[in-house]
Amino acid sequence: MRSILFVCMIALLSTGCSKFAKVQKSTDYDYKLRMADQYFAKKKYMYAQQLYEELFPLLKGGDKFEAVYYNFAYCAYYMRDYMNAENLFKGFVEVFPTSKRAEEMEYMRAYTYYKQSPKVELDQTNTIKAIGLMQAFINTHPGSEKNKEAAAIIDEGRAKLELKEFKSAELYFNLRQYKAAAIAFTNLMENYPDSDKSDTYKLEVIRSYFEYAVLSIDEKKEERFNKVIEQCNEFADRFPESALKAEVSNFLSISQNNIKAIKNEQVKTSA
């Protein structure tokens, strides 16, 4: 049964390829365009793309060129060739800046970068580009019905960048590079001041400086525990209602006790 189905599939593919080959060889360009549009409507984008590409130089500057360019760009997009689609959407706007489709093409150009946005762990260049282009779209088309979707994509992209930055800071901590972790978590807070995780990031700053102080040589401990106390006081001022207050208070108490012990030891030594 499987072999019969396989043979049927091969036969159908061969028939389709044979028909397309005849269309491709045709010198009737109106017919070619009709067939390209039919292939596009039937979602046979590879066939449509090849025919549109052949017709490009022949139709350029004519009345039908805009529609062909529009479909040609979408062929790349629907085939998930996002790099080529981005270039074509951009090119459409440059060639037809006053077209009623120009706004859509600007949005789709930004959207191709969103579609190329990778996992959090990977390079986020495309995420950054998507955010920038979506923001530019909102700024230049304040009344567009796409703005709500564009804003959601910006929020999603920023959340991904924030998470990536958090993971980088967390990695420093896990590698016991505590000073670097403290700086990284501080930068994270500054880069995302409106984050609902700001108190968590501040706690990680405190935790990092605390571990850094604990591992310090005796001559540096007092200075570094004072840094922890400073960070704890900043936390209390900035996040008075945080659910993390108890943990911060614990770091504060331990740090104050360590400084007292250091000072007592200094008194004993000097005596």
Automatic annotation (TrEMBL):
Organism's domain of life? Bacteria
The answer, when asked if Signal is one of the entry's keywords, is: yes
Short name of one Pfam family for this protein? YfiO
Outer membrane lipoprotein BamD-like domain: which residues? 36-221
UniProt KW keywords: Cell outer membrane, Membrane, Signal
In Swiss-Prot or TrEMBL terms, this protein is called: Outer membrane protein assembly factor BamD
